[in-house]
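Handout, page 2. Input:
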Amino acid sequence: MELKKIPVQAVIETERFDLRPLRRSDMGLIELYGGDERVARMTTSIPHPVPPGMTEAFVTRAMADERDEDIWAMDGTKAGASELMGLISLERMDREQSEVGYWVAPPYWNTGLASDAVQALVDANPMQNKTMFASVFQDNPASARVLTHCGFEYLGDAESFSLARDTTVPTWTYTRKL
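Output:
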């Protein structure tokens, strides 16, 4: 997909946290939490262990004017929590569609943070999408519940390669019409 100059990424506010664009100061917490094998194994794109320089390259791409994905930090400072509790992203696709991706730092598991972040992104619809998609590994039913809780509907089974697992993993794919 050709990269094009993208408008400034919006800040999405909720009572509990803000979804805000990444900044260089996030690198330490991204590396800490993303480097946790339990987090990495539930993503397609985070290897384990995280190689030197990868987090810096990731943040640099996220901050670029020309990018194919907007990535937000789940920033809980307004409620006395961490400035980075997880990440959520929208990857641009054609035909006014995007794919949602997210992970939550282990200290914030089972707190409703993922559901709240996905719902905030759906409600804000910052890319003015007609459809959002998401895929989760079939051994991660909690993430599937997040999507169905936020109005996503099961679309079908597929598989995706996981860098941390170094293998192809069965997935469930979901869609949400907006």
